[in-house]
């Protein structure tokens, strides 16, 4: 009955996105921004579902529809007779396009899971699922962008899955939803809100507790700091001391120009903040995507620590920039004005509901103080979009406070996977909630590492993490099929 | 620590409502239409919460607010130090007004539950919680009525409860949500969607499975039929045979006028359907609210069976009308045109999302055939409101199919209470889902009987049902407080 089958898998666009308010990095993408995706496998077929614009209201406008893209690999699907499992990868903040083969978790583990079908769904308003125009157009339309919310997005997924199961006569096929980063949040929220549609969720690096005051504001940058400190105490000290050196220099006559020279910027710096933001982002991205085998944090610190003896602090920091970015004629430190979908969409999402309060106190990290001010943030959102954020809606709708108390006798079948070197792990679920709502984390892992394609060079702890996840999911299936049998469905 | 306290409780308006499409009765109100509520206890304080119009979108209009009424009895509340429980009664299809003391479950059981506070919340668009005008105005505004949905309603309750717990510093007080009929659906759905806000739900007579094709269409009228048949086989036979007699008479010259005479109608019947609808409704209401000590079904059958020997079928049926409604100079059989809130609101709700397919085949009940046609229903909704219903959204959003398979390893702390003589019990949860998601039903019970005020004359099975429910809820509290202690919250 159970064939060993080859299997492909999907993932979403890997662009970096930056919230342009506060110093928070706000990237919530499974893969490092520089990873270039390979081409789409031929096994993937693209479809469009005529999706309801507004699931929760019944105004005439609510009935408008748009074409939502989803992609299916059903090459090896043998039909619904065996109630074979369906895996659904949830789109997040980016187009569901060029980048299918990066997330390899399912691809690699297909034989062990006897997978049959997998579906990847594009989050509304991203990629080819933008209603009524380009994202640029709709994000500038206060009416249309108002429908761009997480609750509508998972309701979209619910509708598509119900439709597909019916179309495939696969009503009894167990569905597992999977996502990384923001997509991981959506996956765990989906299991909580739609248990009748998905029997389980793998939520990789999903910081569902980084809302309200559940996680300390400095959680993100504390982990970045720890990553660097564990890599090298001297590297950490150099970075920690560098900010005041930059400030001091910048305050001198021609100081900015001098900084531009020392950091070989492609165009002259306007302010020292441009340099500091660039460095801030570099450290954060290196820590978040501190993947084997290269381990970018080690690379940056290799540059900083490896500079010739006698090199001053700025010289060491620049050596870190070079080590990380490679030898170049100049370094572009200005923020790009290019409005990528992720920038556009994520900026709106964080300004409407996904308010992730990342901040820093004065002495808690290796970074300068930058506390998160909800007030300032709300004002900046108001001026951008004309409406204030609803910072408490996520915890009102999805929960988060006292999660163990709430979920230990409610809910089942959720894996919250994390790597503790991922700064977002500070807002992840790291405690065991119950026998089937489980954290699976690695001390040395980084952002969404477990759902990326495996490689010969993967360390043993990563191989183990994936194996454990697979075993847990196999256990869910076993129970599900036993239940199906017992209930004679 | 635990005081025995006196306690008051709330309930919602007890008007009957009729869907005006199909022959389905569609009443989903906890109490019989004729019950006259007593006045509001002085222990109840009324407040208004500035409620968000649209929780799920972020359009400028979504941020509009309206004043939502809630009522609190906190007379005996000793503060939050003891994490004393909060009971929240969910408003349903009617104003939350004159009618507080009818639903007596909590009132009667306060000492055993060591209750401290209870909150009753008015469903959006009913009573004094109508946004932007009278219900009549907003129900005629295609834009505003679009926000009148169950998902928005339970999101309202979530916001109010989060707000109140914070205001009262009662974050660790366990909340139990309670509702009857449609309010019972909302209570169970709330527990499923917002487990972080309510630790349990008592859903009395909530037909959450009367959607899609989960429950056979004839479920409702089959129970009505059984009720009459169990009361009296001859009564059942008389009713079953009466429809063709009426039809036959109506087809004769002056037949309608003759029927008007025989049934002493206050104004002449226009068609025989008026009479048949009147009788249909009388039987259904008698069965649904077949409460002790009078048992209306027995009353109707007493009239029918007790007519003098030799009385013809029409005479017997009329004797049933008299027995049920009392001796009068005439009987009003025309449907009232008065647009009660419940009529207005429920008609819209059933035409938008709450499509309950009640129908009858040709020989499955004591009623004439009247199959539910989704197509006809949708057309009638279109012509009334300009938008079609979304008949599958309830099961997509809340589930319902294979409920045991879905919830036995997910969810906890829900009581689905029913009385099997209630026609809506056919769409209720009657099987044990798990150790804490439980049906508590009585063979002889009727609609929402368990949450009505107890009386000296209550039969032992009803007393027992309430006791069992109380014991279960006490068990939830015990576990919750133990968890709180273990987790040192």
From TrEMBL, chains A, B:
Gene Ontology MF terms in the entry: dipeptidyl-peptidase activity; serine-type exopeptidase activity
Span of the signal peptide: 1-23
UniProt record, GO biological process: proteolysis
Domain of life: Eukaryota
Gene3D superfamilies named in the record: alpha/beta hydrolase, Serine carboxypeptidase S28, SKS domain
UniProt keyword terms in alphabetical order: Glycoprotein, Hydrolase, Protease, Signal
PANTHER family with a match to the protein in the record: PROLYLCARBOXYPEPTIDASE-LIKE PROTEIN-RELATED (PTHR11010:SF110), PROTEASE S28 PRO-X CARBOXYPEPTIDASE-RELATED (PTHR11010)
Family: Belongs to the peptidase S28 family.
Protein name per UniProt: Lysosomal Pro-X carboxypeptidase
Organism: Escallonia rubra
